[in-house]
Amino acid sequence: MLDDFLTRAALAGLGVGLAAAPLGCFVVWRRMAYFGDATAHATILGVALALALNMSIFAGAMIVALLMALTVSALTGRGYAMDTLLGVMAHSALAIGLVAVSFIQGVRLDLMSYLFGDILAVSRGDLVVIWGGAALVIALTLWRWQALLTATLSPDLAHASGFDPRREQLVLTLCLAVVVAVAIKVVGVLLIAALLIVPAASARPLARTPEGMAIIAAALGGGAALLGLYAAYIYDTPAGPSIVCVAAFGFAGTNLIGLLRR
Amino acid sequence: MSLVDIAGLTVRLGGHTALENVDLAIMPGEIVTIVGPNGSGKTTLIRAIIGAVSPAAGRITRAEGLRIGYVPQRLSIDRTLPLTVRRFLNLPHRRDPAELTEALTRAGAGGLESRQMADLSGGQFQRALLARALLDRPDLLILDEPTTGLDQPGSAALYRQIEEVRRTLGSAILMVSHELHVVMSASDRVICLNGHVCCHGTPEVVASAPEYRALFGSGTGGALALYRHDHDHHHDHEGHDHA
């Protein structure tokens, strides 16, 4: 069954969709949308480094994503104008990454697949990494759920309850880096943030509790991955962008439902 | 034995000294109010007690197994976060439904369980926060300007609720307040803060201290006089009823 490239693609999309969406809820609640974008864009630099050093793309992307996320985390709340700083860092890292890739011979043609994903080329090995990463993220989110939620509401409430909100922030940062790294193959660095944010934002009008929102977001994210892939197959469109398009239609749909319910 | 004992506390925030050499002890069951102008370090002191900022010097000793209930000054819940009151009270620990009902009733917020936090009125929101703080039956209830954004009847009702909590649970109460007439009537002790402890003692002592008058001016004297008048009147009224 895994010999079929479409089956592998579907499994890859499903794994990333399921892990990204609940994490995306925190990204939305904490207003970190741009943070996700910046981390994702920076990973192209990681891809370049991985190609240059002849190491795994996942590892390179993961390391740079983590460094970027940690840097941004550390600078948060120190009086910097965050949107400006993130803009500078995200696009600088993207540009440096693109320039760095051009120095490496023979990979210039591959660049598109890192920018927009290459889900149809997912190998069995990739699947193991993607599902391993997704499982790690889902497990971490579930384990820290209550603490993460409290820290999201108010860092001071977290302190008063006896745990350190900075540690929870670190867990989120780590999860974000993992998701970004494993999602490169699926949607590419330019569209990763969409997989985080769009399903979460689509789930909001339908949810009454944080858990409800996370579960609905995971369902929508997984569904968008499968449906988008199917659409790409039928209409011969690029797979990554098709997945995001389906997610976007989902957003329009649920928000319409939300409006009609009022 | 004091619940919290603070000695020589100095806190620096980003290079500026927010608190300097603060001493404070809170005894079981007493109501201590912190007053002071904006930027005088009131919230910083509270954040130091709950462990959200670490002291640059001095120490904060909490009694063994001390249970603290904390009501933050402001809690803005993002509209994108769906959260019922029941779910909010279950953070960060899951609770027995009966416990939730009891805490909500105690805080005067009975029946709000399934409402969305974002849809509550200002007074209901503060009561939901209070209910959450009461879940552990705290030895010390800390409130940072609990009546921010409430109108006068609303804040009076909330203070009565807090007083009721102290009576039934026996919790000590440490609060920051701007409402000087309430402070003066309801507190056992008042700490007047301005980066350091300017003066402290019973409301009468603080109100007549020159440091306090220097900070709050003569308007305070008027407020206090007004309060005293009310207070006398109240007693007369009671006497009348009994007769």
UniProtKB/TrEMBL annotation, chain A:
The chain crosses the membrane at residues 6-29, 41-72, 84-104, 125-145, 170-201, 213-233, 239-260. Belongs to the ABC-3 integral membrane protein family. PANTHER family: ABC-TRANSPORTER METAL-BINDING PROTEIN, HIGH-AFFINITY ZINC UPTAKE SYSTEM MEMBRANE PROTEIN ZNUB. It comes from the Bacteria. It is a multi-pass membrane protein. It is found in: Cell membrane. Gene3D superfamilies: ABC transporter involved in vitamin B12 uptake, BtuC. It comes from Salinihabitans flavidus. Involved in the high-affinity zinc uptake transport system. Keywords: Cell membrane, Ion transport, Membrane, Transmembrane, Transmembrane helix, Transport, Zinc, Zinc transport. GO terms for cellular component: ATP-binding cassette (ABC) transporter complex. One of its GO terms (biological process) is transmembrane transport. This is High-affinity zinc uptake system membrane protein ZnuB.
From TrEMBL, chain B:
This is Zinc transport system ATP-binding protein. It comes from the Bacteria. Residues 1-219 form the ABC transporter domain. SUPFAM superfamilies: P-loop containing nucleoside triphosphate hydrolases (SSF52540). Keywords: ATP-binding, Cell membrane, Ion transport, Membrane, Nucleotide-binding, Translocase, Transport, Zinc, Zinc transport. It comes from Salinihabitans flavidus. PANTHER family: METAL TRANSPORT SYSTEM ATP-BINDING PROTEIN TM_0124-RELATED, ZINC IMPORT ATP-BINDING PROTEIN ZNUC. It holds the Pfam family ABC_tran. The keyword Ion transport applies. The lineage of its organism: Bacteria, Pseudomonadati, Pseudomonadota, Alphaproteobacteria, Rhodobacterales. The keyword NAD does not apply. GO terms for molecular function: ATP binding; ATP hydrolysis activity. GO terms for biological process: response to zinc ion; zinc ion transport.
